[in-house]
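Thread title: Can someone regenerate the structure for this chain?

I was given the following input by a collaborator and told the matching structure tokens would be attached. They weren't. Posting the sequence so someone can regenerate them.
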Amino acid sequence: MGRILCVVNQKGGVGKTTTAVNLSAALAISGKRSLLLDMDPQCNATGSLGFDPSDGHAMISLESIEEKILETKVENLSMIRGSRTLQDVDRLAAAGESETGQVRKHLDSIIDKFEYILIDCPPSVGPLTQTALSASTEVLMPIQCEYFAMEGLTQLIQIIKKVIVATDGRLTFGGILLTMYDPYLELTREVDEEVRDFFGDIVFDSVVPRDVSLCEAPSHGQTVFQYAPRSRGAFAYTQLCMEVLERD
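Best answer:
Regenerated them for you:
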């Protein structure tokens, strides 16, 4: 069975979408059949791969979603686009209210076609994020190496624990990723130590540095591997990919 990784943090600007896009691309480049699902109404993951938002989100359809799956310019990487339609957002948020949930049913129907499915969530702990968590098998949490890195995490972790119980253990902690990492800053080193002391082995050894290539690539509708394959950002996500594969 494939792995469904929900990339989540209640804060914006922590590298959540960057991680969802580039980790899914790295997995695909490694030869793993991968799918990126955009469930953030901002649709930044959709734009990052050169697509326009969908008029209607595939996850609210009662029909098969296979025809809604698009092939990207990265070999082995497919995508389900996000939608900015407010009605779609409301219906997606409610799609996890039933025992199994519409989103989970859709993903379970295609899980045999992909080895990895990554879900990009909105920066919140609201119903939409909880719907995505309920459909996932693992949660991957990017944390920015800045002063308020740990702020609000208690609330997010409590919600994740509730979902784990509600889904009979289907969801597990997949890992925590330190982003915007600058080893020359004392604050970065302090956050690194604090996060690793608190969470232990769940924190990935790989870290994602500040790299302008990661910021520029989405404006070209490309992953960092297409835009700047020799950049520090590309190397970091390659290393993270290797760790994710090792935890299989």
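The first strand starts at residue 3 and ends at 7.
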